[in-house]
Amino acid sequence: MTNDSNVTQLLRELTEGREDVMEELIPAVYTELRALARRQLSSERADHTLSPTALVHEAYLKLVDVRHVDWQDRAHFFAMAARQMRRVLIDHARARSAEKRGGGQVFVTLHDALDGARADAEELVAMDDALSRLAEVDERACRVVECRCFAGLSVQETASALGTSPTTVKRDWAFARSWLNRALAGEHPGGSDG
Predict the structure, then answer these.
(1) Is 191 part of a structural domain of the chain?
(2) For residue 116, is it left (φ>0), alpha (ψ between -120 and 50) or beta?
(3) pLDDT, tens only, 148-185
(4) Which residues constitute the domain of residue 92?
(5) pLDDT-based confidence at 75, cuts 50/70/90?
(6) Residue 192, domain member (yes or no)
(7) pTM score
């Protein structure tokens, strides 16, 4: 396990403009990034062309392009890394889907999309579209899903990454699951009441 205070210090230095810190940060968190990549790839099809190493490297390229992030702590970093990995997988799925060009609406349950089912490209794209719509309705609830599902963060770590309370994370998580289930079932869920 990486020393959290060391990672947090490196992130603070990165926030202060020391871009060379990324060269120290990545080796300090590489093992955890690979575990995160393995977790994200575990819900992909078995013959996926991206390896955990390739996914980490693609996400790294996106992370180094992120400018002016006020890095909070380790949890915030891993939430952002998970988001970038998800973007890589979505881009990959969209490219694959474009090659196949199968039309039609795809119905997928939240359980299938998030709980380890081997998602094909259309399911992954449908989930990403639903998450994008959720972000328009409730940005924080969308970030909770990213932290919990894609980064594997606990409620407490998610609260820390998002700068909110665990109670708020639990409420957002319940709302997001319900909203996404309706959206993935083809319904038109309403907005957040909170």
Answers:
(1) no
(2) left
(3) 887 788 899 889 888 899 999 999 999 999 998 888 88
(4) 4-184
(5) confident
(6) no
(7) 0.61
